[in-house]
Amino acid sequence: MGFLKTKGEIYKAVEDVDVGPNSNQFYLTANVKAPRMAGFLVKVFAWLLETPIFGSTMLYFLKRNNLIHKLVTFAELQESPLYVPLHYYEGGKEEENQSGTSPREQVRQALEYMVAPIKDLKSFSRWSILDYSTAYNSKVITPTKVMERFLSAVEQSCTPSMQMSFFINFDAHDILTQAAQSTQRYQQGEALSVLDGVPIGIKDEIDCMPYPTTGGTKWMHKVRQCKDDAECVKRLRSCGAILVGKTNMHELGAGTSGINPHHGTTRNPYNIGRIAGGSSSGSAAVVAAGLCPAAIGVDGGGSVRMPAALCGVVGLKPSFGRVSHSGVLPLNWTVGMVGILAGTVEDALLVYAAISGPNSSHHSQTALPKLYFPLLKSPRPMPNIRLAKYGEWFNDCNEEIRVCCSRALEKLRDNYGWETIQVTIPELEVMRLAHYVTIGSECSTSIGPELEKMNKDEVGWDARVAVSVYGSFSSQEYLNAQRIRNRQLQFHKRIFSMADVIVTPTTGVTAYTIGNDTRHTGELDYINGAALVRYQIAGNFLGLPAITVPVGYDKSHLPIGLQFIGKPWDESLLIHIAFSMQALCISQYKKPEVFWDLLAS
């Protein structure tokens, strides 16, 4: 279709682009031109895209209309490609982490920087990892009793009146066996760590014995067997955590809602008529509902932070490479990272300490920068923290989110004296499209050969649309996307020379309503999808650490999150900032509509 070729954008040299507050850079909003589709419309759209000639024509015009051709495909760039966002650590060789440090030791070290929080009985709070450990050590309750309550709660969550769809798979016998072993360790005074006996959910994108890994599909476990725990799961197991099953997720991680036609739609505990967000929907929901103080997810395009924000919990995505990806479905090699969903920043830190580090079986792997832990004994503020805010981007959300997040920044200023500096982050919509090309190309390359062999009826309708789009990206588009990655990294380095972190709302909208027409087909809602991922992309595409913290609610009592994006390997500062933000908001946290108290007297 050369006669229809779009003229590509000609990008200035990076050094000629102003990132200051008075930059003349134009803020381009997402150019999404697609109506919401579900039910029969999704089926028709999928059939059309899968038609050889007509489908190719449709995909060409879809990419053209959504500016992929102009901004990515035919763009003229000076930068070379950057394929993997693994950052060089400038701290020097003496700062490298020793690969021999065990997960238990790392958890012990992190614990030394914390104290058990004093609970405000007048306000809502979830039980923390320290609460579980204290209850077990004081013989108030045993891990076995907690897991019996857990299983009863999960059974209740599956009743027709709730249909929460938290899990794809869980095994009561395995859970109770783990609990009995933990109970015995506590009786003998030999608990492995503060995580011993603590229930933790694992997203069904991560290998965890004895379960198959489905990736939210009906077919993945048939072509790829789970033979061992993923590295992050091994680390949690070595600390004594009780791994309570495989949490639900959006099929193939290819969506933002958590609506899954095969395994059910995970519902938001704050309002069961609303989405939990995706793709780590089940992991966010089990934490919000009190079933687990923490859970593990995978974040390829906000898939940890987005559902965390919608469900009112903490979501931490570490730097690329900080947590081993061994045993994780290879759906997005260079943008997907294992992350943590937790009820508090402190719990996120403890799980982060447990799972961080290289693959234990690959001793030749490049050493990682030293794992530092922040002091979380009190919300004592660090002086002179500078928060970079790009006003037009920050305000590109609904009004209730904008007001809530702006007030959160005012609290940081008034209580800690932290400064918000105005900056311009150029070409954000370009980065979103380049990330979409990248994650789509990598997913298609990974699973394409298997999909060609199987009956398409095995794949959900919305996922079939996603796979069709993913398979349409060319090598030229992928290469240009990696050149844009290099370009964006240079912009962000300049931003970080002026500020410690970048601050944004976590999502552009709060949890929206689950349509009655989505049950069997899923849905295509690209407008809400673009709003949900609006602030997520830099963390994945550039390999930066990022964390979301609950800071309030909208008029429908749905949670709102504030996100901090940090410099590579600077999780310690990022976690401290999040902890300081949490301290100013935690007394206002609200109890979800759906909640279980597993430690009740």
UniProtKB/TrEMBL annotation:
Boundaries of every Amidase domain copy: 167-574
Annotated InterPro entries: Amidase, Amidase_CS, Amidase_dom, AS_sf
Transmembrane segments: 44-62
Keywords assigned: Membrane, Transmembrane, Transmembrane helix
SUPFAM superfamilies in the cross-refs: Amidase signature (AS) enzymes
Pfam families according to UniProt: Amidase
Family membership: Belongs to the amidase family.
Protein known as: Fatty acid amide hydrolase-like isoform X2
